[in-house]
Amino acid sequence: MEYQGEKSGTWVVGRRRFPRYRTALPLRVRDHLERQLEGYCDIIAEGGLGVTLSETLPLGSVVLLQFALPNRPTELQVWAIVRSYVDPHRHGLEFVSLNEEEQLSMRLFCNELAVQSVSGEQTDPR
Q: What CATH number corresponds to the domain at position 94?
């Protein structure tokens, strides 16, 4: 089984480096053709995102992500690589350019989601 349970919000897979958490964050993706796609992130981890987009991105392509975290005053702009897709619109993206400050912001946000899942809080992260 791929995840611990919907109720907890924590996603765990045996060989993953980071636990994954449910969230709801709007985002923009710019691809190598300079197309800007609107979408949303519904799964987040310190190492990447699960996103839904209106178009399919090729596996292995590098994209620029732009999104905001509630615990950060400015929007993140980070590079990621398309690692997988479940269907033509759901993609798994791995970060390739987080600096230390961005890594800390991601870690803190994921920790907040972990605490919420344990305490049973159901807050909207936006």
A: 2.40.10.220
Whether 38 and 28 have beta carbons less than 8 Å apart is answered as yes
Q: Is the residue at 85 inside a domain?
A: yes
Residue 80 in tokens? 């990621």
Neighbours of 92 (CB within 10 A): 19
Query: CA-to-CA distance for 14 and 5, rounded, in angstroms?
Result: 14
Quote the number of domains for the chain.
Answer: 1
27 in any annotated domain? yes
pTM assigned to the model: 0.80
What type of residue sits at position 123?
T
Residue 55, classed as helix, strand or coil, is: coil
pLDDT (tens digit per residue) in 50-97: 999 999 999 999 999 999 999 888 999 999 999 998 888 999 999 998
